[in-house]
């Protein structure tokens, strides 16, 4: 998800793309896709770092790609007043925390499963021409018998994404 967000932000002309994370393989891939800044801190330290990188304002747009309470709290606190938060990670919790800051900072929060087919006509030419290479996120490829191995590799942080070929 995160790398897809970096690809999309770059494609849409973002001048600054701040990627939060800790896994070196994912961060390296994000940098290669166009992330301009990396934040490895979590919690309040992450918020402080993003605020510093944005001149104290916070980010116009935030993608929350993890789905945990902590990642949502960080998202709420790094978005600037009037900003937007897109939830693209499957939520692990059924509530959005900190309702007061969302109201008083006029934050927009939205999300759900991506309507991928809606973007095919626009994005497929860029993929076919090599302008964007989303397939680079797949670092484990196998057949149907390798599904358990693929899940194990992701769980053990040995793979970012798995592709199963039929």
What does this structure look like?
The chain is of the alpha/beta class and 166 residues long. The protein has a domain at 2-114: 3-Layer(aba) Sandwich (Rossmann fold). The protein is built from seven helices and seven strands; from the N terminus they run αβαβαβαβαβαβαβ. It has helices at residues 2-11, 24-33, 43-53, 69-78, 99-104, 120-128, 147-155; strands spanning 18-20, 37-39, 59-64, 79-87, 108-111, 138-142, 161-164. It has a three-stranded parallel beta sheet with strand order 3-4-5, with helices on one face. It has a two-stranded parallel sheet with strand order 1-2. Strands 6-7 form a two-stranded parallel ribbon. The protein is globular, with a radius of gyration of 17 Å. The protein starts with a helix and ends with a strand.
Q: Would you identify the CATH architecture of the domain at 2-114?
A: 3-Layer(aba) Sandwich
CATH topology of the domain at 2-114: Rossmann fold
C-alpha Rg (nearest Å): 17 Å
Strand content: 15-25%
- Strand order in space, largest sheet: 3-4-5
Summarize the main sheet.
3 strands, parallel
Helix-strand topology string:
HEHEHEHEHEHEHE
Helix-strand makeup class: alpha/beta
Overall pLDDT confidence: 89
Top CATH class of the domain at 2-114: Alpha Beta
**Percent helix:** 25-40%
Which spans of ≥5 residues are poorly predicted at pLDDT below 50?
none
Q: How many strands appear in the DSSP assignment? A: 7
Subunit arrangement of the protein: single chain
Q: Which overall shape is indicated by the principal axes computed on the Cα atoms?
A: globular
Q: Can you count the helices? A: 7
CATH superfamily grouping of the domain at 2-114: NAD(P)-binding Rossmann-like Domain
First-to-last CA distance:
23 Å
